[in-house]
């Protein structure tokens, strides 16, 4: 009992001693330019993740200079993305904001927009790949379809998780903060550029050709948030649909490119966003969103 009382006393004294510093930090962030708030979030996010990343790298026996395998990348990605909502909670507490300010409002409307976005994302890819099949740019590996049964659900859950976190961070927090200090189009351009560049963390060689496509993807997802009246559901669904469809095709090795056309058409390193086909998919989706916005 005595030890427990001492522990409680120590904890209360510690909290009391840090309270003035926390209040000062909160007051500073509430009055600081939004760029400072954004920097504080990313510094806090990466700073908290680095120790976890180092331990994970040692446990996975990762070697510098060697590309990450999917089974090596996943633990690092999950640990990074699990921290994001926690750091955002801290920022929200210090700046007196909430997730709803970033477009994440948990209700039936969110679910409906999520489903709609997911279906649109998958269909847009189906149209683009269908065109490539018709033009004989790629072929379907029927023998690999049996692999789908075991991977569709796990990849769906990962896509939903990744899409949700990235939309909360980039189209939610980052875009909302920047839009308070800059015109909306500038905030969209900057947030999409940061979204694209941060993908270089995982794989520079394969990601570099995808940077224009990733930037355009970010812009389309910003448009999706506008179409959804400031909510993230539609953008989240689109993002998850694209990730799920592409990851399922890649994992099951369902598509083989015939080599009849240059890589810049189908996508360098077999990455759709690094080619004209992926850009067409994004532009098609953006066009659908634009015309859809005219009727809401």
**Percentage of helical residues?**
over 70%
Give the ordered list of helices and strands. Answer: HHHHEHHHHHEHH
Number of helices: 11
Distance between the termini: 63 Å
**Number of extended strands:** 2
Structural class by helix and strand composition: mainly alpha
Please give the structural blueprint.
Layout: H1 2-31, H2 34-60, H3 70-95, H4 108-134, E1 138-140, H5 148-179, H6 184-197, H7 204-207, H8 211-227, H9 233-252, E2 255-257, H10 263-266, H11 276-293
Would you write up a description of this structure?
The protein is mainly alpha-helical and 296 residues long. It has a domain at 102-296. Helices cover 74% and strands 2% of the residues. It contains eleven helices and two strands, in the order ααααβαααααβαα. It has a two-stranded antiparallel ribbon. The radius of gyration is 22 Å and the shape is globular. Residues 1-18 have low confidence and may be disordered.
Brief overview, please?
This protein is mainly alpha-helical.
Task: Please describe the structure with a list of short key phrases separated by commas or semicolons.
single chain; 296 residues; mainly alpha; two-stranded antiparallel ribbon; 11 helices; globular; disordered N terminus
């Amino acid at each position: 009992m005595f030890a427990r009382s001492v522990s409680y006393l120590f904890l209360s004294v510690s909290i009391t001693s840090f309270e003035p510093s926390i209040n000062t930090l909160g007051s500073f962030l509430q009055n600081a330019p939004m760029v400072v708030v954004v920097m504080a979030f990313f510094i806090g996010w990466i700073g908290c993740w680095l120790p976890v990343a180092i331990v994970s790298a040692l446990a996975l026996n990762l070697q510098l200079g060697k590309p990450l395998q999917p089974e090596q990348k996943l633990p690092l990605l999950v640990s990074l993305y699990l921290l994001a909502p926690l750091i955002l909670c801290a920022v929200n507490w210090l700046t007196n904001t909430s997730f709803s300010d970033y477009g994440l409002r948990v209700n039936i409307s969110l679910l409906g927009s999520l489903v709609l976005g997911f279906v649109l994302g998958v269909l847009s890819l189906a149209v683009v790949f269908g065109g490539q099949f018709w033009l004989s740019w790629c072929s379907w590996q029927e023998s690999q379809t049996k692999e789908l049964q075991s991977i569709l659900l796990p990849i769906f859950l990962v896509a939903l998780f990744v899409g949700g976190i990235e939309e909360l961070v980039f189209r939610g927090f980052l875009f909302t903060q920047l839009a308070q200090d800059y015109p909306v189009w500038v905030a969209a351009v900057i947030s999409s550029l940061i979204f694209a560049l941060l993908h270089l963390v995982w794989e520079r060689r394969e990601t570099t050709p995808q940077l224009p496509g990733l930037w355009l993807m970010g812009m389309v997802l910003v448009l999706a948030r506008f179409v959804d009246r400031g909510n993230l559901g539609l953008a989240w669904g689109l993002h998850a649909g694209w990730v799920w469809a592409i990851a399922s095709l890649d994992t099951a090795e369902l598509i083989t490119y015939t080599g009849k056309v240059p890589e810049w058409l189908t996508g360098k390193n077999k990455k759709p966003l690094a080619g004209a086909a992926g850009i067409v998919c994004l532009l098609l989706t953006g066009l659908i969103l634009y015309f859809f916005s005219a009727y809401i």
